[in-house]
Write a structure and sequence with these properties.
alpha+beta, TATA-Binding Protein, nine-stranded antiparallel β-sheet, about 25% strand, transcription regulation, TBP_archaea, TBP, TATA-box-binding protein, DNA-binding transcription factor activity
């Protein structure tokens, strides 16, 4: 089950203004990307040399390095893998990783000229503009694609095939799209959701 606090989004109830196109409400909350440097790292040494880095092997197996501008957190592992999270856009996550690459290179670590960076997850929030009957939606969409256990989690989890993302729907009309690889995935998912709910007579 996907925990509510993982989303980092404001899902509180609010008075809806009229929303003609829910896609216009979409806002990226977090971008997670991964990359790798071409050597195994001595994390103790990296943590000592990186100003502001944290490393406690008993709590987490990697160095936690915070980039201030753009705001992001790089998780650096002994294998050379780096995961960057907390960026607010795809360009920002690439910019943050460039800063990490430059910093590591200055420490004498071998960083290739053009490291391959892969976006793993884009978390996007949105608003459909009206309250939703989650019980009816769970029945209408079918149990094979839906998880809805309100005593465990206040949202409905809807797994889409195309695009390959997971949508969290809340009774307030708020949505969270997770698992996107490009920003357009959230737009496509919102179109699918609106179309499905409209066909079921559960929207507008």
């Amino acid at each position: 089950m996907i925990a509510l606090h993982w989303t980092g989004c404001d899902l509180s109830m609010s008075d809806h203004e009229e929303i003609n196109d829910p896609k216009e409400t979409l806002e990226i909350q977090n971008v997670v990307a991964s990359t790798v440097v071409s050597q195994e790292l001595n994390l103790e040494s990296v943590a000592m040399d990186l100003e502001g880095a944290d490393f406690d092997r008993d709590k987490f197996p990697g160095v936690v390095y915070r980039v201030q501008d753009p705001h992001a957190v790089a998780l650096i592992f002994r294998s050379g893998k780096i995961v960057c999270t907390g960026a607010g856009s795809v360009p920002a996550v690439h910019e943050a990783l460039e800063i990490v690459f430059e910093t590591l290179s200055d420490l004498g670590i071998d960083v290739s000229e053009n490291p391959n960076t892969e976006v793993q997850n884009i978390v996007t929030s949105g608003d459909l503009g009206e309250r939703l009957n989650l019980n009816a939606i769970a029945i209408g969409l079918g149990l094979e694609d839906v998880e809805y256990e309100p005593e465990q989690f206040p949202g409905l989890v809807y797994r889409l095939d195309e695009p390959d993302v997971v949508a969290l729907l809340f009774g307030t009309g708020k949505t969270v799209i997770v698992g996107g690889k490009v920003p357009a995935d959230a737009e496509a998912a919102t179109e699918v959701i609106v179309s499905k709910l409209t066909d079921l007579g559960l929207f507008r």
